[in-house]
Amino acid sequence: MLNKKVADLLNDQINKELYSAYLYLDMSNYFERRGLNGFANWYMIQAQEERDHAMLFYRYMQNNDCPVTLGAIAKPDKVFKKDMDVLKAGLEHEEYVTASIHTIYDAANKVKDFRTMQFLDWFVKEQGEEETNARDMISKMELFGSDPRSLYMLNQELATRAYSAPSLVLD
Ligand code: MG
């Protein structure tokens, strides 16, 4: 059995990852309405990845015979007035998720739960990549966002992003 505090944090993380998926879906929704289908595609893939993350936490708990309790997923409440608002909200959200993963890691470390720490290693690395991606999006938008022609090219580039399943697989 997992330590109660660690189990509760893992359970909460399922909800946080599903909320992330919901938030990114809303960001994709924003860009669909803007007519920027490449950006919409990029955020839709983000949403798919977040659902994958939720399922990894779910599967890890099930594999460790740990009861899962599913809670309500909050409404995405951010109001996006301009493109940059979306990108900045994305980075802010990833920083929040990173802190959340680190909190679980810390709790696992305190009770010498090495198995959970090893499971979380993948997410620690993943969060580093997510933050880098979010910062890259902001940099590109700062450079190209104000020129319609460049924005069009950036949109075309983001349209090429394809979904791939997470490298972490739990049987
Ligand atoms: Mg995630």
Descriptive overview:
The chain has helices spanning 4-34, 37-63, 83-110, 114-144, 148-159. α1 (4-34) packs antiparallel against α2 (37-63), α1 runs antiparallel to α3 and α3 packs antiparallel against α4. With 171 residues, the protein is mostly helical. The two termini are 18 Å apart. The site of magnesium ion (MG) has 5 residues, from α1 and α2.
Would you spell out the secondary-structure blueprint of this structure?
Blueprint: H1 4-34, H2 37-63, H3 83-110, H4 114-144, H5 148-159
Helix pairs in contact: 1-2, 1-3, 2-5, 3-4
The protein binds magnesium ion (MG).
Summarize the structure.
The chain is mainly α.
Keyphrases for this structure?
171 residues; mainly alpha; binds magnesium ion
Structure annotation, total helices = 5
Number of strands: 0
What level of helicity do the residues show? over 70%
Q: Which sheet architecture does the biggest sheet show?
A: none
Overall outline: elongated
Average pLDDT, all residues: 97
Any low-confidence stretches, pLDDT <50, length ≥5?
none
Terminal CA distance reads 18 Å
Q: Compounds present?
A: magnesium ion
| Strand/helix succession | HHHHH
Structural class estimated from helices and strands: mainly alpha
Rg, alpha carbons: 17 Å
Q: Proportion of β residues?
A: under 5%
